[in-house]
Design a protein that fits this description.
Strand order of the largest sheet: 1-4-5-6-2-3
Largest sheet: 6 strands, antiparallel
Radius of gyration: 18 Å
Order of helices and strands: EHHEEHHEHEEHHHH
Structural class: alpha+beta
Distance between the termini: 48 Å
Length: 254
């Protein structure tokens, strides 16, 4: 299954999303419609950018069938950053895509479409990235664009889901993921508006780098790494981004 599809499905009159199959059976990999609705409410209630980002990727692995690893990538003129992920491998995969200038995440961001890859190892669209990802045990990918803000230096967000299985993402997973991605974009845009666009996103970039370093060095989860950064911030009465910058520059917590 090698295909690309538009970001959303809408009714013929251009109204609300039309998504079939959101009421998956309770206990399945995606949970039921009640859990899905509750997760969207939780996401909408986040008040800060970093919390919104982290919750988004954690929920993605829970709600979208087939998803083993998730991250959010930001694409802008001066490069690609991955401020949040559920596994350091996702950051590595994003860096490979930046280095090879190809891959499902970049395509989703640049073309503003949902991109599905059923078998990265043999996908002809990304002859450099695909086999490299497969060698690292990642066989499928599903990427959704998150358009956040337009300036002279456009920044696009992309929600990326990875799986260790081929053909991991069926039509229901794609449909559910599109609704979830739309909610992520809305929640993230609201959090950015509260914090201020430039300062919020620049802070999230350096915090994401710091979390990735700590996750790889200490084998911590993303939440554990963020908690350690916060502990130092509170202990020393310094801003979170300043602690993160120290980690990004030195590789160690203060």
């Amino acid at each position: 299954m090698l295909w690309t599809k538009p970001l959303t499905s809408r009714s013929d009159d251009g109204g609300s999303f039309v998504v079939d199959g959101l009421g998956a059976a309770e206990g399945g990999p995606e949970g039921g419609s009640g859990r899905f609705a509750a997760a969207l409410r939780d996401l909408a209630s986040c008040n800060e950018v970093d919390g919104t980002l982290q919750l988004a990727v954690e929920l993605a692995t829970e709600l979208v069938g087939g998803c083993d690893i998730a991250d959010i990538m930001f694409i802008r003129a001066r490069g690609v950053t991955t401020p949040v992920s559920t596994d350091p491998l996702a950051i590595e995969l994003d860096k490979i895509q930046e280095a090879t200038d190809e891959g499902p995440c970049l395509q989703a961001g640049h073309d503003q479409v949902t991109v599905v890859a059923a078998d990265l190892g043999s996908d002809p669209r990304w002859p450099a990235f695909g086999p490299d990802a497969a060698e690292r045990g990642i066989r499928s990918a599903l990427s959704f664009p998150l358009f956040l803000h337009r300036t002279d230096d456009d920044r696009f967000g992309v929600l990326n889901l990875y799986s260790r299985e081929t053909d991991a993402f069926d039509a229901q997973a794609v449909e559910r993921g599109e609704v979830f991605a739309a909610q992520c974009a809305a929640a993230l845009a609201a959090a950015i508006a509260r914090e201020g666009l430039q300062s919020a996103l620049e802070s999230r970039d350096v915090i994401g780098q710091a979390k990735g370093i700590l996750m790889q060095r200490h084998r911590w989860s993303a939440l554990e790494a963020l908690d350690r950064i916060r502990e130092v911030s509170q202990r020393d009465n310094v801003k979170l981004r300043d602690v993160a910058r120290h980690v990004a520059e030195t590789g160690e917590l203060p």
